[in-house]
Amino acid sequence: MKVEVAVVGNGVAATACATRLARHGIRPLLIGPGLPVDRPPLTKAALVDGKPRLLADEERLAERGIDRLHALVVDAELDEGRLRAEWGAEAWEVEADRIVLAPGLLYARPPIPGFEDALVNADPHVFERLAALICAGPVEVLVVGAGLIGTETAATLAQAGHRVTLVDLLERPLHRLHDPLPALARATLDDLGVRFLGGVRIEKGGERAVETARHGTLAADVVLVATGGVPLLPPGLAPGEVELPLAVGPNMQVPGHPRAYACGDLVLVPHARFGPLRFPHWDAAIGTGEQAADAVAGVAAPYERVPYWWSDIGPRRLAEVGVAAQAAAWAEEGGLHVGRDEQGEPVCVLVVDEPRRLREARALVQEGGGA
Ligand SMILES: Cc1cc2nc3c(=O)[nH]c(=O)nc-3n(C[C@H](O)[C@H](O)[C@H](O)COP(=O)(O)OP(=O)(O)OC[C@H]3O[C@@H](n4cnc5c(N)ncnc54)[C@H](O)[C@@H]3O)c2cc1C
């Protein structure tokens, strides 16, 4: 089949890219398994009612002018604009003028014996298995990994009436985030009745129990793994020897491959203010997806969207605007936690439970960049 633009992937970035391409009057082909599923609800509302949220159904895609192929891309010749997609015994050869790569992250199971078939709460297909286990009534759940996904998952499940234990190798939930977020997450988990165990090394995994050095056997009805993801580029899709995340140009082009673009969790973006930036969060997936579509349509502009993520830990809404890693000093300013760089310019603002102040936080960070 011949198309103008093929978008590899059907997650947040791919759908944003395809939607924007259609607005530019370009009819894209979205290639991925099933309908596009949104990710954030998998640790929030969908975990309560067992229903994943679609980014668009068949009808919406058609209305927007987006074609869809239910398949996985297994091979690509980026410079020739050729893709091979497969699903079961079926296979398709796709010829495209331009290709946009948006396959997201690989949420791999940790290399611990017994975790070969573990439930990973990040993938919509695995989610179906999980939903069947937790939606029939309260169960005991052990969540492994207290990053954003694991901590949210534990809090949501506890709020929904399940008995939850959350374990991590590190001593605090959200340990890698800036203060006060780890302490705040810990207090919220305590309030919700989640048992948090830090400093836990798992020696053997399992579907209903794990073996640990510090606490012996921890048993549950369901063991869930939330140990994070790594950028994914199946070998057949990689443009030669590449390092991941894939460093793209300002317009999301894959360097050295003029027909190819990339976006979403896969990429390292040259941000106009913050420099090379890896930002695997929802808003950046939309921003880079739209930027790739604009570039395909011939609209060139620097990538300057202010980085932003949010997380719902039970009743609490945490948000970060800007880049925490670039802050040299932090101070509380009018109820916001503001991080400033060596020059004293605001580079990051943490907003806790005050979504209405996000605009203010964004303006502060933008002002720091001289915008
Ligand atoms: C459970 C969960 C909760 C999250 N919650 C938040 C949140 O609260 N706030 C926030 O800011 N961010 C959140 N995020 C992060 C955010 O959702 C991601 O940054 C965003 O989804 C990345 O978009 P993406 O399109 O790059 O990848 P994804 O949305 O993961 O989509 C990638 C898609 O590509 C498909 N694919 C992979 N390989 C191939 C192939 N070879 N051929 C065809 N298709 C392929 C996959 O099946 C998948 O559908 C969350 C992520 C997860 C997983």
UniProtKB/TrEMBL annotation:
Presence of the UniProt keyword Flavoprotein in the record: yes
Ranges for domain FAD/NAD(P)-binding: 4-288
Keyword annotations from UniProtKB, A to Z: FAD, Flavoprotein
Regions that span the bilayer: none
PROSITE patterns: PROKAR_LIPOPROTEIN
InterPro entries in the cross-refs: FAD/NAD-bd_sf, FAD/NAD-binding_dom, FAD/NAD-linked_Rdtase_dimer_sf
A GO term for molecular function: oxidoreductase activity
Name this polypeptide is given: Putative NAD(FAD)-dependent dehydrogenase
Protein's organism: Gaiella occulta
